[in-house]
User: Fold these one by one.
Assistant:
Number 1:
Amino acid sequence: MFGLNIQNFSIRKVYTKSKKESIYMRKTTEIQEEVTIKFAGDSGDGMQLTGSLFTENTALGGSDLATFPDFPAEIRAPQGTLAGVSGFQLHFGSREILTPGDEYDVLVAMNAAALKANLGRMNPGSTIIVNTDGFDKKNLRLAKYEDGQNPLEDGSLDGFEVFEIQVTKLTRESLKDVPLSTKEKDLCKNMFVLGFLYWRYNRQLDSTIEYLSSKFGRKPEILDANITALKTGYHYGETTETFTTRYNVKAAPLEKGVYRNIMGNEALVIGLITASQKAGLPLFYGSYPITPASDILHGLAQYKNFGVRTFQAEDEIAAICAAIGAAYGGNLAVTGTSGPGLALKTEAMGLALMLELPLVICNIQRGGPSTGLPTKTEQSDLLQAFYGRNGESPLPVISTSSPADCFFAAFEASRIALQHMTPVILLSDGYIANGAEPWKFPNASAIPEIKVEFSKPSENGEPFLPYGRDERYVREWAIPGTKGLAHRIGGLEKQAGTGEVSYDPANHEYMVKVREAKVEAIADFIPKQELSIGPEKGQALFLGWGSTFGVIKSVAQNLLAEGYEVAHAHLRHLRPFPRNLGAMLDNYDKIIIPEINNGQLSKIIREKFLKEVIPYNKIQGVPITKAELNDFAKQVLG
Amino acid sequence: MSTTNGTIPLAAKDFATGQDVRWCPGCGDYSILKQVQTVFAELGLDRDQVAIISGIGCSSRFPYYMETYGMHSIHGRAPAVASGLKLANPDLHVWVITGDGDGLSIGGNHLLHLLRRNFNVNVLLFNNQIYGLTKGQYSPTSEEYKVTKSTPLGSLDHPVNPLAFALGAEGTFIARAMDRDPKHLKEMIHRCHEHQGTSFLEIYQNCNIFNDGAFFTFTDKETKPETTLFLEHGQPLRFGKNREKGIRIDCFHPQIVDIEQDGYSPGDLWIHDETDICKAHMLARFFDAPDMRQKTVLPRPFGVLYATERPCYEDLLYDQLKQAVGQKGEGQLDELLAGGATWEIG
C-alpha cells in the first residue's frame, strides 16, 4: 500500500510542476552559503523529529552540518510553557561547518513560548516562521506575556521577516477526510512545517517519506496523514503568493568519499562494536538508564546479532560490577553512565584498577553537581575522572571532540583498556551525544586489529604469576576456565608477581608506583599531539578537549584570517598526555583554555606543567559561542 | 569417581590453597570451608572450572582459601560480579560467598536482583547475626534490642528474615543449613550444585568472638530436636526427641501436634512439598512466630524449603543472541559502519 503512495506522489509532483509552471516562474531561488535554523515548539510538538528529519535530508544533499538538540528535562513539561519548550538547532552550509551556530537565521516557532525563549538569539533581518494557532490567549498567558500583549501584533517583531502560518488549522483542513481524532491530526502539524521548509530549501521528500513508512507502516491511517501533512506544507509554500523566494544551499567541499549522518552516542555504539570485532572478543555492556547515556544502551541492544550482550543492571554499581565480572571472564567489558552515575561507580572503578582488568567506562557528561542539569551539557567531570577514587588510583582518560569522533574515541579507549589491562574513562558530553554531523565512515578492512592474548594454559606445572608484568608493566589476562591457571584476585593489596594478599610496606609502595608507571607508559603507545590549525609557534595556543572542538577551531580560523598568530590543539588523550604536549605549550606566549566548566583542564595543566594558563569558562549548560570566545581572545591578545 | 576431564579425581585437600586460613580459631567458617572442599571433591569438579566470588566481610575471605578461580570483590557487590562472569562464561561453576551484612545490608539490592534473574549460580550466605570483621556491630539479621558496640542501649532495627526475603525476591531454590551439622550442610551444598538457577543457602554460622552461641538453641544436642525441623521432600513434618511431634495445617495455620497423645497419624501431618510456593512461604515464617493457639514457638526449618525450575538468565540471553543472528544474520561490520542512508561526494 505504501509503495503505491510513493508512486502516486512522484507522479503527482511531476504533474504539479508542469501544470503550475507559471507559479514557479514567479518565484526566485537564492543561493545561500550557510544557514542556521532553530526548530522550537512544545515538547509534544515533535520538534526533535522534525529537526532530525530535516538534518537527514540536508546531509543527503551533501551540505556540511552540525546540530544541537535542546530539550526540557521533563518528558512532557507543562504544555505551552517556557519550561516546556523543546528545540533543535541545525547549522548547515556549503563550506566547513564546525558548530551548530551562535545565532539563528531562521526560527520556526510553534507557539508563543517557543518564540519568547528563542528571540534573544535572532539577528535583525532574520526570518521567523510562526504557527499563529499557537498564539491564542492561553498560549500567550503560559508564555508569560502580559495581559493583552501579543508579540505578533505589538510591533516587537519589527525588523524581522515574519511568516505567519495557521499551521494547526491548515493541517486539520488537509486531514478533514482522514478518520483520525483531532488530537491525532494535530500531531501531524510538525510534518506540515517540515514540508514547508522542504519547499523553502528546494528539497526532495523521498527520504522523509521512506522514514515515515518504516515508522508507521503498520498504521496506514497515521502514515497517510503524516504524508498528506508533509505534502500540504510543501504545496503551501509553492502556491502561496507570500513566499516568493526559495533557497539553495549547495553541497560542501567535503573530502571525496561515502558519507552518512551520525549522532554522537550512535558513533560510540558503532565504535565499541567495531573494537569488539577487531579484538575478537564479545562485547558486554552493563548500564543503568541515565540521561544522556541511555541511548548507548538502546543502541547496543539492537546489535545482538554482533554478539553484543547488553545488561540493564539494577543500579550503576551493579552495572560496572557486572562489567568487571565480564572482563574477568574475557569479554570487552564496557559500562556507560553520566556524572552522578560515575560517582556511584567510584569504588568499583578502584576495584577494576586494583584487579588490572580491561574495562571501558563511558561518561556522557551533563551539568553537575548532584542531579544538576540532566539534559544540559557541561564538561563537568574531568577532575572526577582524574581524581575521583580513594587511594592512589590513576586511570587513563580519553575524550571525544565531535559526534563522529566518538567512533574513534570508543575504539581507542577499548584498545588501550585491552592492550594495557586497565580501566579507561571515556568522556563525551550531552552536546556531542545528541549532536549530529556527516561522517565519512571507514571501510571495515581499513581498521586495524586490536591484538589481545589471553594467558596460555600451564603445561609444565610452573606456578602462574597473575601479577607478573611485561616491559610495559602490563600483567597477563588469565580467563577462568583456563587449565592450570586457577588464581585469586581481589581488592586487597597484592604481592607483586604472585598476586597474593600482602600488607608488606615496601610492596605496597612498589605496587602504587608500578600501577602509575603502567598508566604513564601508555604515552609511548599513543600519537603525538598535533595542531588542528595554526602555526607551530605564536602568540597564543588554544588548548581544548571534548565538545569545544568546533567553536575553538572556528575562532582560531577567524583570528588567523585577521592576522593573529594563534593555533589550536585539541586533546584526545588527557591521561597520560601525549609526550610532546609540554614542548608544544612552550612554543606560545599564551595558553588559552576554553572549557564548559570552572577551569578543570586549566588546573591539571598548571599542576602538570607548572605553566600559567588563561582559562575561558562558561558554566551555563550550553556551548560556548564563537562570538564570545572571539571577543575574549581578542582582549587577551590585545 | 572421575573428573569431567578424565584425570585423577581430586581430594578435598586439593581444593585448599597455600594461604594460611586467617579466621579466628573456633569460627564456624572452618566447618563450611571443609564441607565445600569435600563436596567439590565428591562432585569431581575441575578446579579450573570453578570461580568463587565474594564481597567483603569475614566470610568473603573464602576465595583465598579455595584452589579455584576466585575474586574477593567489594562490599555487597559479589552478585553483580558473578552475573557478569556467568554471562561471559556460562560453563563455569560460579559460587557466591556472602554474609548477613554483605548480602542483606550493603548488597541487599544485588542479591534481590540476582535471585529474580535466576542466573545459574550458587549463593552461600553465612549468617552469624553480627558484623565480625568490623568487630562487633549489630547486623541486619541481629535480634531486636541487641546490645553491641554501636547500640549500647540496644538495637532498634527489626531483623530481616533471609529466607522470606529470598522467596520474596522470586528465588528458585531456598534452603537453610548450619555449620554444626556438617552432614546436612554437605547434602545442602550438593543440592545447590544440582539446582539449575540461583540457589540460595542460608548457613547459620557461629561467630565465637562477637556473637557466640547465637544459634545455640538450634545446634545444641539437648535442644536441637525440639527447636529444629529437618525438611524432606514428600515426608511429613516431624520433630522432637523421638520424632513424636508433627506439624499439621489447621485452617491455614501451622499447628504443632503430638502424634500419639493427640491421636494423629503421620498421614494427617503437613507433607513437605518443595515445589509448593505457598507452603514455602509459610515455612519461611517459622521464624520465632509463635503458634498463637498453643503459645508455642514453631521449630526452625532446615533443608530445602523451595525448589522450582525457571529458565536461567544466561540461557535466555544466549537464546536471544542466536535468535538475533537468525533474524538479521551474523552482524556485518561494513553494514554497521554505513548505517541506513549514505551519499557519495566525489
Number 2:
Amino acid sequence: MSTSPALPLAFDETRRSGGLLTGLLSSDLPRSRALSFILLAIVVLLAATPFLFSGSQPVGTAAKICVFIVLVASYDLLLGYSGIVSFAHTMFFGIGGYGIAIALERISPTWSSVAIGLASALALSAVLAIAIGLLSLRVRAIFFSMITLAVASAAAVLASQLSDITGGEDGLSFQLPPALRPAFRLFSEPVFGTMINGRLLAYYLVFVVSLIVFLLLLRIVNSPFGRVLQAIRENEFRAEALGYRVVAYRTAASVISALAATVAGALMALWLRYNGPDTTLSFSIMIDILLMVVIGGMGTMYGAVIGAALFVLAQSYLQVLMGAGSAALAGIPLLPNLIHPDRWLLWLGALFIISVYAFPGGIVGRLRQANPKG
Amino acid sequence: MTASTTTTPALETRGLTIRFGGHVAVNDVSCRFTPGTLTAIVGPNGAGKTTYFNLISGQLRATSGQVIVGGEDITGLAPSARTKRGLGRAFQLTNLFPQLTALENVRLAVQSRADAGWSLLKVWNTRRDLIEQAEAVLERVRLADKRHIAPKALSHGDQRKLEVALLIAMEPKVFMFDEPTAGMSVDEVPTVLELINDIRQRGDATVLLVEHKMDVVRSLSDRIIVLHNGALVADGDPAEVIASPVVQEAYLGVEVARD
C-alpha cells in the first residue's frame, strides 16, 4: 500500500484504473502514508498472529477483530455511505450466529451443516432486510430508525424465548466439523514452531473470509451503485429526480449490509463454537459498532478496520493495562481507584468523547487531512 | 389551443388539478406541448407555475387529471420513473449534491441516463465513457475548469449552470426550466439563456420555461401560456398573449411597471 502512487484529489476522476492493488482496493486507496502504514500493519499482524503470539487469547482477539471489521464495514455501508441509521444490525449478526449454531448443533457437525446454516441465515436476513426496507425506508429517517429498533428488540426477545431452538439465554454450544477441531493436525510436524491444527485453520477461515467480504464491500461502495448511494445520502430528492429509485437503492443497501453482517455472525459463531444473545445479539454490541464506525471514520470503509482493531484491542487489553497501572500506583491516594480495572468502561467512554471531539472525521479523516499524499 | 399543437404532443396535461385543503393551487389545466417548441409559462407569484411543474415531474400527486408523455399516461408514476420516460427538470432553488464535485454531479446524471446505477461489482471509474460524457456537458455549460469543485463552494451563478448541466446530461425529451436565471448576476444571465436557446435549436426538444423576466420570455418563446390563481387564462403567440387585456390586468401590468 505504501508504494501506491500519490493521488492528488479525493475524487480524481482522471486516474486510470490499473494494477493489482488498485483493482483489489477498487481504486479507493488509503490516500495517506500514515494510513497506508497502519492498515498494512493491521493486515500483516492479523495474518501472522498465530505465529507471532502464543496462547489462545491473542488469536481470539485477532479473530474477533476480523469479524468486527466485516461487521463495522457493513454498517459503514449503511450509515456512512447511505445515511441510513439502523439499529437492527446486530439482529443480522445474530441470525448468522444462530444459523451456524442451530445447524451444527441440531443437524450434525459437518461442512454441509455449515452450508445449510449459512444459506438459511442469509435467506432469512435478506427477507427481513427487504421487508424492513420496503415497509419503512419510505418514511422519515427517524421513524425508520425506530422501526429497526423495535424489530431488533423483538428478535432479541424471540431468541431468548424460543429456548427449544436457540438455547434461550444460555445459547448453544456445538461441535465444529472435524477439520476445524483443536485435535485435527494438517501436518504431523510443526511449521515455524507452530502446530497447524484445526484451531489455526479455523482462524484462517475467519481471516480469509473476512478479507474477501471486506474487499467486496469496498468494491460495492466504489461501484456505480455505491456512487448512487452517496448521491442519495447527499440529496435524496435530487437523486429521485435524476431517475434513481431511492427506495429500491436504499433497500438494496440494507440487504447487502445485512448479508455481510450475517456472514460476520456465522464467522463469530464458528470461531467461538458457541452462539448466544450476549455474543451476537445484544444491544451493547450495537453500541460498540456505532462507536467503532465513528472512531474509525464514517464513509471511508478503512475506518472500519482501524475502529474495529482499536476498539477490540481496548476491550481486551485496556483492563489488563489498567490493572497493571493500578497496582503500580498502590499507596498513592485516589489514583489507584481512578484507574482500577473496573473503571475501564469509563475510560473507554472518555477516549470516545475525546476522539469524536478532536477528530470529527474519525481517525481516517484526520490522517487523510494531515497527510493527503499516499 | 393554437394551430401548432395539432401534431402528437411530447407532453400533455388533461384537467390537471391539485387541492391543498380548500385551496386549489392548480385548477383544471389542460395543455399540449409540441416537440420542437419552447413554451414560456408566466403568471404572478403564487399563480401555481412551480406547482404545475411539480405535478408534471411527479414531486406532487394530482388530485385529479392526467399527465401524458409521448402518449403514455404517467400520472401514477414516481418521479424517477417519469425521468426515465424523458421528463427532465431543473429546479428553481438550486438542488444539487453539495459535497460531491461538479463532475460527479453531472456524472451521476449521465450514469442514470445510461442505466448504469445497478452495476455493483465494477469500479465506477472503469466507465470512462460516462466520465467523458459528463466532461463534455461541463464544457458546454462552461464549467470545465471547475469540475473538481463541490457545488457548496461554487458561486450562485455557477450552481445554476451546474443545475442546467444536470438537465442537459439527462438528455430528456422534455426540458423543464423553473426560473433558470433567478438570482443570477446580469452578466451571467446571457450564458444560461444561450444554453436554453441552444437546446431549442438542437433537434426537436420540447422546452417549458417558467420565467419572470419579460424580455427573456419575449425573445426565447414560441408560445406563452399564462397561469393565474392556478387556472390557465391565456395561451398563444407571444405578441398576442402579451397584448391581451387579461394578461395586462392579471400579470404584465404589474411586471411592466416594475421593469
